[in-house]
């Protein structure tokens, strides 16, 4: 019997600080209402920076401009039913601008909110994953890697055409 190849799920997240507060989303999950950075899955054909810009717009209606990579994180989440998944998360920091047009937020997103590090720390029990606080702590510690640290190899059309 052929064993299925293990593949982690690739996600992206945005750390956005403005006037000492961090942009977060409150979202419905299978574990209830949770707090997370604007984040989501990498889709086929996207670069990591394209994905984090798209996810931030979909979840907050703000345009995210990535400026640096904060870190790459791997975590495994177990589910009560015995299943689980491993996530490889690329967290970027940057600034935001307002969306040019009003838009509805992704399904499951209740609202975008801005919290201080102290408020975020006090709400740890509601974080979607431990990576929420870890990403902010790394950002506050000054961890930054240039965007060109992450390289996307573009594959052209078959036979160079």
From TrEMBL:
Keyword Hydrolase (UniProt)? yes
* Keyword Hydrolase in record: yes
- What EC number(s) are associated with this protein in UniProt? 3.6.1.-
Q: Which domain of life is it from?
A: Bacteria
Enzyme class label: hydrolase
- Pfam families in the record: NUDIX
TM ranges: none
User: Partners and quaternary state?
Assistant: Monomer.
Entry protein name? Phosphatase NudJ
Organism for this UniProt entry = Trinickia dabaoshanensis
